[in-house]
């Protein structure tokens, strides 16, 4: 997992849910801008089944059962 993925995973493990606004300040820029880095990291975690988002705007992200087991493994 990347450092940014670990930041998001730790935040969601501690809080249960988080918005983009809470996640973005924690991101380290990886070659693009902060928006792209945050968006692509969130998408990667959703695709891997580690987090999920509610179907509303603004989105609220939460950790899945698989994500909780992965957090125990990597954090």
Task: Describe what this molecule looks like in 3D.
- The protein has helices at 3-15, 20-23, 34-47, 65-74; strands at residues 17-19, 51-53, 60-63.
- It has four helices and three strands, in the order H-E-H-H-E-E-H.
- The longest helix has 14 residues, at 34-47.
- The chain has a three-stranded antiparallel β-sheet with strand order 1-3-2.
- A hairpin with a 6-residue loop joins strand 2 and strand 3 (60-63).
- Helix 1 (3-15) crosses helix 4 (65-74).
The residue ranges in which pLDDT falls below 50 over 5 or more consecutive positions are none
Structural class estimated from helices and strands:
alpha+beta
- Number of alpha- plus pi-helical segments: 4
- Note the gap between the termini: 10 Å
Q: Widest sheet: strand order?
A: 1-3-2
Spatial extent as radius of gyration: 11 Å
What's the order of the H and E elements?
HEHHEEH
Quick summary of this structure?
By secondary structure, this protein is an alpha+beta fold. It has helices at residues 3-15, 20-23, 34-47, 65-74; strands spanning 17-19, 51-53, 60-63.
What structural keywords apply?
13% strand, alpha+beta, globular, 75 residues
Task: Summarize the helices and strands and which ones pair or pack.
Layout: H1 3-15, E1 17-19, H2 20-23, H3 34-47, E2 51-53, E3 60-63, H4 65-74
Antiparallel strand pairs: 1-3, 2-3
